[in-house]
Amino acid sequence: MTVTLRPVKENDLPFLYLLTSDPGSTGDFQWFGFRNPHRYRRNWEDNGLLGDDGGLLIIMAGDDMAGFVSWSKQIATTSSFYWEMGLIVAPEFRGLGHGTQAHKLLVRYLFDHSVVNRVQAATEISNLAEQRALEKAGFTREGVLRGIGFRAGQWHDGVLYSMLRADLPEKD
């Protein structure tokens, strides 16, 4: 099945809320408690969830919404920045390779449309499926981030991955 990315439409907002605020949809590694149900609407009305400092795109598997990817600008030095990215795939689309494809598409998009040299992603050390997806997408594992994330009442270690512009495969 073909995976594509597209901008968020107004009628996608309930889907985004479900994937980030419903414990049955977020998955074990993304459940951080209930969130403001108006947060996506306010940002969508402001900039369509696409701005100079980051954004969010819907993952499409054929004609179906399969999840979303997001990225945010991180300042590295006074003269450079990099992108931090992540994604959530809807439960019915997990384990089908859509996350790997979405990672590849977003990295290509970010390198094609900005001057950054680095895109990075992090996940919990026990999230083996996401680590496999990042590695299949061409990311390099850089190391363990001890005690980096608080979820479910305790601190969790993370794993940092990156891709540099030079690591990006040639366009087809």
Description:
The chain has a single domain (3-167), classed as Aminopeptidase (3-Layer(aba) Sandwich). The chain has five helices and eight strands; from the N terminus they run E-H-H-H-E-E-E-E-H-E-H-E-E. Helix 4 (98-113) crosses helix 5 (128-136). By secondary structure, the chain is an alpha+beta fold. The longest helix is centred in the middle third of the chain and has 16 residues, at 98-113.
Produce the secondary structure layout.
Layout: E1 3-7, H1 13-21, H2 23-26, H3 39-47, E2 50-51, E3 54-61, E4 64-77, E5 80-89, H4 98-113, E6 118-124, H5 128-136, E7 140-151, E8 154-164
Parallel strand pairs: 5-6
Antiparallel strand pairs: 1-3, 2-3, 3-4, 4-5, 6-8, 7-8
Helix pairs in contact: 4-5
- Look at the structure and name the CATH superfamily: Gcn5-related N-acetyltransferase (GNAT)
CATH class: Alpha Beta
Please indicate the count of domains: 1
Approximately what portion of the residues adopt beta-strand conformation?
Answer: 35-45%
CATH architecture: 3-Layer(aba) Sandwich
First-to-last CA distance: 18 Å
- Radius of gyration over C-alpha positions, nearest whole angstrom: 16 Å
Low-confidence parts = none
Helix content: 25-40%
Envelope shape? globular
Q: Note the run of SSEs as H and E.
A: EHHHEEEEHEHEE
- Biggest sheet architecture: 8 strands, mixed
Structural class from helices and strands? Answer: alpha+beta
In short:
With 172 residues, the protein is α+β, with helices and mostly antiparallel strands. The protein is 27% helix and 40% strand.
